[in-house]
Model the fold of this input.
Amino acid sequence: MKDTSHINPLENEAIYIFREVAAQFEKPVLLFSGGKDSITLVRLAQKAFWPAKIPFPLMHIDTGHNFPETIEFRDRLVKELGLELIVRNVQDSIDAGKVKEESGKYSSRNSLQTTTLLDAIEEFKFDACIGGARRDEEKARAKERIFSVRDDFGLWDEKNQRPELFDMLNGQIELGQNVRVFPISNWTELDVWSYIEKEGIEIPSIYFAHKRKVFLRDGLIWSHSDYVFQEEDEEVLERMVRFRTVGDMSCTAAVFSEATDIESVVQEIRDSTISERGARIDDKRSEAAMEKRKQQGYF
Amino acid sequence: MEVLKIATAGSVDDGKSTLIGRLLYDTKSLTTDKLEAIEKTSKQKGYDYLDFSLATDGLVAEREQGITIDVAHIYFATKTKSYIIADTPGHVEYTRNMVTGASTSQAAIILIDARKGVIEQTNRHFFINNLLRVKEVVVAINKMDLVDFSEERYNEIKADFEQLMAKRDYEEQKITFIPVSALKGDNVVHKSENTPWYEGETLLEHLEGLDMAAVSNVGTPRFPVQYVVRPKTEEFHDFRGFAGKVYGGELSVGDEMVALPSQTRSKIKDIYFYDKKYETASRRSSVTITLEDEINVSRGDMLVKVDDLPTMEKQFTATISWMDSQQLSSGSKYIVQHGVNKVLAKVETIHHKINPDYSGIDENANDLGMNDIAQVTFKLNKPIFYDKFKEHRTNGSFILIDTQSNNTVGAGFIS
Done:
């Protein structure tokens, strides 16, 4: 082709950010959940360093309550691309008595991930953790920097953030601190889906419409699973659903859908009037739920 | 795909968040769940209208105090463009946030309350957009519903603002006036029936029509090397690629280049974006370049065309915007991050402070406090390769990093 003017400005920006991470930090890691955003990150990282391999490992903080499809997909991707994968388990943090499993109707291991993550950062001495969070997802994330400094305790001080001017990213930190890096900060959900379509990126099957045993609660569609608490009067239904966002099974709700391929998923997102995190049970807890979790070191 | 980044500026209660909320609402970018949350909270507060500002004020403290205290990013898209709005607060003490928001934007919206007209804050907002050389400025004269959509009032404010324009030092900046009511939706997305005397475009029509090439700052091509790609695999045994973003202009295969600071020459052999080769690397694309000759280039070096050299000096004078609570004083040392290049710098002279409202300068400036803007000369431990900010928005700007706290404490624009 002749010139590079057709390339998506958001893609140029993300590649630039990846290169800054590799150049400014000694031990970066890409936090990989098996969701579409982290899969997109992997593709962008490939592009940033080609023909060299991605110069950092992936790490998955596994709640043990993941969709099996996601884990299968994760292992296949890592093998195909010859990447290094680190897995740390929330179960181990529970067994060690560091965190306590929630109980009751809305119990989830989602917020327990924070402790496991912070321990892993310390274990490997990671100085930069790359994540797929986007500013359009949620109000607290809209204030997040691209390079976001965390103190020794992994905490986020949202009122004292470094200003980010022009393209310049300041990754200078003290020993013990680390930086959370968000290369797709400026992407919207539709941008991610359109990119997946255009690039032909493979994603786990649960993102496409499939028959699943579900039950309804609070206007959301919950997966029927051993990991999800279910009242006796909550009836199990079999429906065509897909997931817009994929986290722990206990905090991710499905949407009714007939979209079985990427074109129809993109079309559905275009037409949708519900935001992506509208299907996140963890955000429904309170208006400030995400901000509180982030201050404590959640991704 | 086109992406337009816009910074907003307005004083407290000028209705900035409401305007953004209105843009989102009328472009149907607010999703049902967000809308429901807004309806619920508006009702709780006892409003008889929808408080769109709730769509943007993200942090708990902001919701409690009803103000915006940090830069928030808001996204929406039309069929033509994707928009990223940096919502920056308008208080006097938050100059640093406005400078930050404007630095990444190609366009700015300045809000004026039609009842209050051009006030001191308006001067500051315009000053910063001048300083940062934001090419496209929209002056949205808001709350027109509260002045009975008066054409006379609109013209009065416009005339006052034009007086300000005479003071700016940036002739190429384009300024457009639009009478709006963010609360009621007049001339934001839909044309208002209340302003028959206004023949111009609505705010969204205007943004939709902006030519991206025209709003971008163009200069000479500069290629700061971010990262050296060395795969060391059998297939790419000798591959040495210089990864970076092209700024200002474009670079093509065969272009004769010089590497700075070594001043070694070579020609561009290949231009890659991922695994594909291209003839030309367009402005702002993140490419990997290989050269004909094996020359020593590392991160922080810059590749430029042989006939288009930047200034290479160990000293420069710049207008700086100070952003830290700790003062800057003569003799103190900082790290200058110029693009991806870092050097140690010492404050040589603080010449004067510049009042950010066109009211002149303050000669007695010994040290600078948060939100001060000043003319300062720095001495560097190594030369950097710069252009004047006026001629090159990227290669003429830098940030200052505190050597103790590692915080970004200021931004500078080379004179």
Notes: Chain B touches chain A through 79 residues (CB under 8 Å). The first helix of chain B runs from residue 16 to 26. The domain at 311-414 of chain B is CATH 2.40.30.10 (Elongation Factor Tu (Ef-tu); domain 3).
